[in-house]
Design a protein that fits this description.
Layout: H1 2-25, H2 30-61
Helix pairs in contact: 1-2
């Protein structure tokens, strides 16, 4: 799951970068690419933050045993 989330975050970050570059160069559809990248990055980050909160809560409840969850 970690590799999949990293991949999606990288792709959405690249979309933001390309959209910003298109906007600066005044290429067509730069605003569409930029908004799609920002929206996808926001959604993916929200899921990742909620997943990490659950992991932190689980570690807190188990007495912060580092062997209870494998990366």
């Amino acid at each position: 799951m970690n590799k999949v989330m990293k991949y999606f975050l990288i792709v959405s970050g690249l979309a933001v970068f390309v959209g910003a570059l298109f906007q600066i160069q005044h290429y067509p559809n730069g605003d569409l690419i930029l908004m799609a990248g920002l929206l996808s990055h926001f959604i993916i980050s929200s899921f990742e933050i909620s997943r990490l909160k659950k992991i932190a809560e689980h570690l807190k409840n188990t007495g912060s045993d580092s062997n209870s969850l494998k990366p």
